[in-house]
Amino acid sequence: MADAHPLRAALSVRGFRQLLTVRACSQFGDGIFQAALAGSVLFNPERQAGAFAVAVGTAVLLLPYSLLGPYVGVLLDRWSRRSVLVASSVARAVLVIPAALLTGVAEQGGLFLVAALVVIGLKRFFLSAVSAATPHVVDDDRLVTANAVSATLGSIAFSAGLGCALVLVQTVVSAGYHGYAIVAALAPVGYVVGAVVGHRAFGAHQLGPDARARPSTGVWASIVVVGRGMVRGFGHLAARRAAAYALAAQTAFRVLFGVLTLALLLLYRNYFTGDGDVDGSLTALTGVFVTGAVGVFAGAALTPWCTRRIGRWQWVSVVLVAAAVVLVGFGLPFLAPLLLVVVFVLNVAAQSIKIVVDTLIQKECADEYRGRVFSVGDTTFNLAYVAGVFLAALTLPADGRSPVALAAVALGLAALAGGYAYASHRQARGRDTEGDPGKAAASATA
């Protein structure tokens, strides 16, 4: 009976519900802060940055943490993950305040960038801790559903934060430095609530890592030898090919997603609305965020059901093919209403792939390696996205309208679907026939 209701079974676990609450509160704050951050650069009549400046800003905010990600994984594998959740939330609440003050006085220089990149870096640290902690509150056979619910609720909370920020800019505050500073100053509310819930809900070591798996050497000694440890981590991942292939597919998808993200921003800022019409651009983007949130929800709702019936790698291949087809059919006309269909399907694909990747890492990787593997995943996740944004900045026109680029991305999605399906099918067939010479011979002659 439990198998018939995986969602209800996962949500019946009190610890999982509490972990969801912590994540939702934190990501709501992230949505508010990042909306204020992006708005002050992209949709600010006092300063409208070009595409390359946006790419540089994205790299500055994401790359420092991405390069430190493996070291963060070492810490996740030895520090109490409850402490990581609480401390990272409190630190973000504190650091947002100077970032908001600097925005208010139009000083978005080096000090502002440092504060902003630390806040965003701590967000990735926080999410890695959530992923590594989930197997401690949910049974293995519920991980797909639990990851779907967790990622969906987090994305919806993030989108809700974005939406609230957009509504405030359009109704209460102005779309300028002062207005975006006020919006950013509201983000700590979500962080503080999440920290309080996390501290009260869990014991110091309830979320792992397990005492028997925690390294016994000191933190600094581990950091010194982190290169060797990461080689072992990569070796651990490489030996679990289902997880490795899925992570590689997600990385390639993120490059293409980065290209489309910047293209979409340019289209809504410079092509669909009049030049300098900030209010019109923000209104149009509200529909994009809502559609994206619905796509995230749909991806999370479909993924557990579809993976149980057709398999994980099969479902990833299906959503990649669907994204390629929809991108050509609904994207090439370059009409705003049709692009909403593209946004919906791309978010279904992104959420589906994320759930499958998280689940495979959790199921296949030993707990003493999970923190490092998730941090490696976050590193490739961000590096690939930044690469895609830079590629778009260097190749797209100022208004974002490029049929050639869109067709190239669609072709890339289709090729990725085929390559991932081929590699995963071979890996699955090898696992099925391992240790059974008769079955292996039958497969070889099939």
Describe the structure.
The protein has a single domain (13-210, 237-432), classed as Up-down Bundle (Growth Hormone, Chain: A), CATH 1.20.1250.20. It has 17 helices and no strands. It has helices at 6-11, 14-42, 51-76, 81-104, 110-133, 143-171, 177-184, 188-201, 219-224, 226-238, 241-271, 278-310, 312-331, 336-364, 367-395, 403-433, 437-445. Helix 2 (14-42) packs antiparallel against helix 8 and helix 3 (51-76) crosses helix 5. The chain is globular and about 60 Å long.
Beta-strand percent range: under 5%
Can you identify the CATH class? Mainly Alpha
Structural class: mainly alpha
Q: Please name the CATH architecture.
A: Up-down Bundle
Name the poorly predicted regions.
435-446
CATH superfamily: MFS general substrate transporter like domains
Give a concise summary:
This protein is mainly α and 446 residues long.
What is this structure's SSE topology?
Blueprint: H1 6-11, H2 14-42, H3 51-76, H4 81-104, H5 110-133, H6 143-171, H7 177-184, H8 188-201, H9 219-224, H10 226-238, H11 241-271, H12 278-310, H13 312-331, H14 336-364, H15 367-395, H16 403-433, H17 437-445
Core attributes:
disordered C terminus, 17 helices, single chain, 446 residues, Growth Hormone, Chain: A
